[in-house]
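Researcher: Next sequence.
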Amino acid sequence: MAEGKPKSQSGVWSTVKPFVNGGASGMLATCVIQPIDMVKVRIQLGQGSAVQVTKNMLANEGFGSFYKGLSAGLLRQATYTTARLGSFRVLTNKAVEANDGKPLPLLQKAAIGLTAGAIGASVGSPADLALIRMQADATLPAAQRRNYRNAFHALYRIIADEGVLALWKGAGPTVVRAMSLNMGMLASYDQSVELFRDSLGLGEVSTVIGASAVSGFFASACSLPFDYVKTQIQKMQPDATGKYPYTGSLDCNCSTRHDDVDIPEPTSEDGEIFGLIELVVLSFFDWGTHTLADGKYDGLPNLKHELYRAES
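Model: Next structure:
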């Protein structure tokens, strides 16, 4: 009887481990890329180019402003990334078992990524809402600022002022964005690991860095349109009559080019393309860093089974 106990504990830990690793490493990555994420959000809110945003923030708000909303960012990783990476790995393990241990086809990995993204976004949407509002607060007129002190104060104020269901404001585009991001990020990472390590014979470090770069590119390319809409929906406030700028995600997407006063029209086609490139580059570094640190050690052969595959 005494010998059966460790096996039970091992079984529980092997199930819980992907969630713990995913959340902890996601929080670590957030501490590194929070300034990049802040600049990206400000660009989406029409504050100018990356250089302009950085200069204005340093001049008007100080260096600490780059880490505004860090508590909400950490809470988002503790909820969203924990659920996202943990569920992806659990679902992948089950699918591999059903496939007799053979590598999964890309389409099946993409489907698992979509599912994991939806699960993670549903859990992490309240923290994501708090993060966007804290990051966008300084862009609002002084009278309209919410002045949340930290993530928990933000959640408390949202419930008190707008009701519990308001915690999931913008949950629709958040879920769609997470599904597209995960489809691009997680599926491409696993596929790249197999290509770099098994087909090209690259070493451990080269495989991890290469797969993270590919994953970061596909994550940013797949998620940016939805990320923009999500940011606009989550930061919006009602006017004096109680009417919101947008009725939903589709309305935001259709209206932005015509009557969103917060997003100035680019002065030229070149300026528009340059702004898009900036967002892609920032998102690439954002998600590339997350991929490296998110506990996704599939590129390390000696850790692959230990960290993510169910122990036999």
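Model: Residues 4-44 form the longest helix (41 residues). The domain at 16-308 is CATH 1.50.40.10 (Mitochondrial carrier fold).
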